[in-house]
Amino acid sequence: MSKNQKFLLLFIGFCMMAIVGLVAFNVLMPKQEVKPDEVQVMERSVQEDVVEDTKPVVAEVEYVNVYFIGKNEHNEEVYKAVKREYNQDVDGSKIRFAVNALVRGPKPEERLRGVYSEVPLDAKVINITEQPDKVIVNLNSAFVTGGGTESLYKRLYQLIKTAKLNSKLPVYLYIDGQRADVVGGEGIMLSQPLSNTSLDN
Fold first, then answer.
1. Is 52 inside a domain boundary?
2. Which range of residues forms the domain containing residue 142?
3. Burial (CB count <10 Å: 0-12, 13-18, 19+), residue 25
4. DSSP code string of 138-154
5. Most exposed residue of 35, 91, 155, 177, measured as fewest CB within 10 angstroms of its CB?
6. What is the pLDDT of residues 92-141, one digit of tens each?
7. 3-state secondary structure at position 128
8. What CA–CA distance (Å, rounded) separates 135 from 57?
């Protein structure tokens, strides 16, 4: 073995001893204890995204029934309850909404299904007064004018059925500001508050 080879082996051996010594020193020497309050946590620089629920809130749809006239499966004339989507922002209470819908009459698509009304086209709602113990429906005189006795009976029943279905309070009919206990040219007696027996006199 040459002199250079011996020197190289000695150098490698020395390096190996040094590495082993360093490893042993790190393993055997006690480490300094790190206290929790000495650990610094950097403030997060990434802003969290707040995901809002974009799902639309679907309000529960309410309906009122308005009574018009139509035919049943036996081609007989009957009072038909037509369901209308109730919008409190349009006419306020259900009784207001329903009576106004009754006076306005059936929609075109309802007429196509054979639904019609005996309420005259020039009938108007003057006002509807809701009191703690009763509701007053005040219509103009056109509501009780023309069409004959049978037509008048039918439109009164339309009003009675619509009003009773949409109010828990007693409902009274006024014509041009006067309580309508007798209506029409034939003097039809109308017992009040309105009920299914109001025209049974």
1. no
2. 63-189
3. exposed
4. EE-GGGGSSSHHHHHHH
5. 35
6. 899 999 999 999 999 999 999 999 999 999 999 999 999 999 999 999 99
7. strand
8. 34
Is 113 a domain residue? yes
Distance of CA 16 to the CA centre of its chain: 83
Q: Are 115 and 106 in contact (CB under 8 A)?
A: yes
Taking the alpha carbons at both ends of the chain, their separation in whole angstroms is 141
| One-letter amino acid for residue 41 of the chain | V
* pLDDT digits 0-9 by tens, 161-170: 999 999 999 9
pLDDT > 50? residue 59: yes
CA-atom Rg of the chain in angstroms? 44
Beta bridge partners of 198: none
Residue 168 covered by a domain = yes
How many alpha carbons lie under 13 Å from residue 7 in its C-beta half-sphere?
3
In the block, tokens 């040219």 appear at: 185
Cα–Cα distance for residue pair 183/152, rounded to 1 Å: 9
